[in-house]
Automatic annotation (TrEMBL):
Pathway per the UniProt entry: Cofactor biosynthesis; molybdopterin biosynthesis
Family stated for the protein in its record: Belongs to the MoeA family.
Name of the protein described by the UniProt record: Molybdopterin molybdenumtransferase
Documented EC number(s): 2.10.1.1
Spans annotated as Disordered: 1-30
Lineage: Bacteria, Bacillati, Actinomycetota, Actinomycetes, Propionibacteriales
Protein task: Catalyzes the insertion of molybdate into adenylated molybdopterin with the concomitant release of AMP.
GO biological process, one term: Mo-molybdopterin cofactor biosynthetic process
Domain called MoaB/Mog: residue spans: 208-347
Gene3D superfamilies: MoaB/Mog-like domain (3.40.980.10), MoeA, C-terminal, domain IV (2.40.340.10), Molybdopterin biosynthesis moea protein, domain 2 (3.90.105.10), Molybdopterin biosynthesis moea protein, domain 3 (2.170.190.11)
NCBIfam families, per the entry: Glp_gephyrin
């Protein structure tokens, strides 16, 4: 028994079960290129891994403008709902226009206020007016001679002639919109015509723009020495609205890290995405980066792109809200928004994240640096036959953007584009 004493020894106290908390982590960082830079496509994919499409909900179709539908939508009714007349005339049954021997019938009884057309009857109808049930054609009034209670048939018609059949425009079950389509005023009208009053859509992403900078003041405020008006946050707020977001803008006048932390934390409750815009100083950038690091997980990287090489993103707060810090230079901020933030917003909306490019003929010499994506501001001209693009350059960044309607994409393999050669472009405002 001695050998088994251990089985009857003091009972070991059970260790309390502890739920291991899974600490949030950022996705694995993509591999850098030989120059230590992250490829643009890799960084876009990295950002897209931070978010998921927002949860869909039902909404009245009239309120769903610019929303992305989350399911295929089919017509619930026939349009027109009833067969209607294409002409002024008389609704008839074609079978009544011949007797049993196949000889033409000379006259039909003129009926009034009938829902179902009886044998040998005709009913007067106007253009677009519903014909009685049972009618299979319409005799134009030129084809008959109308008497007091009868019509004499001068010329017969074939089955379906001068008749618009029920469901001719839209049939029950016909596809109207597909999952991922964005509602506009025209297809909202189509949905209403098809008997649809509610749709399943994703909400517009809520974007909070946190503007900061020691030397920035609000538009309209008096400028002190060394100060400048904050234009970046207004530019990016408007750009986010153009994509389809609901935008809130908050200004922090300074670059104090703790003040920035508090401002960001206060906004997380209403944010699906936070975007930081700053002034151009190193201190402004470092203050936001420090606030982000204290609030969550941060990825700071240099991307093989010009302008906008330095990119910072992260997951902030307990809910791990995605946050992107844009460069301080207005052109760099705007280009970075188009390249990286637009796909994020489109993913949240449940829309296609792949942007459409157009081909255009370069009107002048364009130069780039091999190994990076270079996005030049351009003026795209389409005369209906040829699409051409010219580079726009201006020492005032906002003027340069204001004069541009496209971004010219020079890929990593391109060093020189000569006049007359074809380039790829993004049209601003088209996604």
């Amino acid at each position: 028994m001695v050998g088994n004493m251990a089985l009857f020894g003091r009972k070991k106290k059970a260790e309390p079960e502890v739920d291991e908390e899974t600490k949030p982590i950022l996705p694995p960082a993509p591999r850098a290129d030989l120059n230590g830079l992250r490829r643009v496509a890799d960084h876009v994919d990295y950002l897209l891994n931070l978010v998921h499409p927002l949860k869909p909900f039902g909404m009245a179709v009239i309120d769903a403008f610019d929303q992305v539908v989350c399911e295929d939508i089919n017509s619930l009714i026939n349009v027109p709902a009833n067969s209607t007349s294409r002409v002024v005339g008389f609704a008839v049954r074609v079978s009544d226009l011949q007797d049993e021997d196949g000889k033409p019938v000379e006259s039909l009884v003129l009926a009034k206020d009938v829902e179902h057309l009886g044998t040998g009857q005709a009913v007067r109808v106007g253009v677009g007016e519903a014909v009685p049930r049972g009618a299979t054609a319409v005799l134009p009034e030129e084809f008959v001679e109308e008497k007091a209670d009868r019509i004499e048939v001068v010329q017969a018609v074939a089955e379906g002639e001068y008749l618009r059949a029920a469901g001719e425009h839209l049939a029950i079950g016909e596809r109207l919109l597909s999952k991922g389509d964005t509602l506009n005023e025209r297809n909202i009208g189509m949905l209403a015509a098809a008997g649809i009053d509610r749709v399943l859509v994703r909400p517009k992403p809520r974007v909070v723009i946190v503007a900061s900078g020691a030397e920035l003041v609000e538009p309209g405020a008096e400028l002190g020495h060394g100060e400048s008006t904050d234009a970046n946050s207004y530019l990016i707020a408007a750009a986010a609205k153009a994509v389809g977001a609901t935008v809130f803008r908050v200004a922090v006048h300074g670059n104090d890290t703790q003040e920035l932390k508090q401002a960001i934390t206060d906004q997380l409750i209403r944010a699906d995405l936070v975007i930081s815009t700053t002034g151009g100083s190193r201190e402004d950038y470092e203050a936001v980066a420090a606030a982000m690091s204290e609030l969550g997980l941060v990825d700071a990287v240099e991307v093989a792109m010009s302008p906008g090489r330095t990119q910072t993103c992260g997951l902030i707060g307990e809910e791990r809200v995605p946050m992107v810090m844009l460069p301080g230079n207005p052109v760099s901020a705007y280009v970075s928004f188009q390249v990286f933030v637009v796909p994020l917003l489109r993913r949240l909306m449940g829309a296609d994240v792949h942007r459409r490019t157009v081909r255009a003929i370069a009107k002048g010499m364009l130069r780039s640096v091999k190994g990076q994506l270079h996005l030049l501001r351009g003026e795209l001209i389409d005369d209906g036959r040829v699409r051409s693009v010219a580079r726009v350059a201006d020492p005032f960044a906002m003027a340069e953007l204001n004069r541009s309607n496209a971004l010219i994409l020079l890929d990593e393999r391109t060093e020189v584009v000569r006049p007359g050669e074809v380039v790829q472009c993004w049209v601003m405002g088209e996604f």
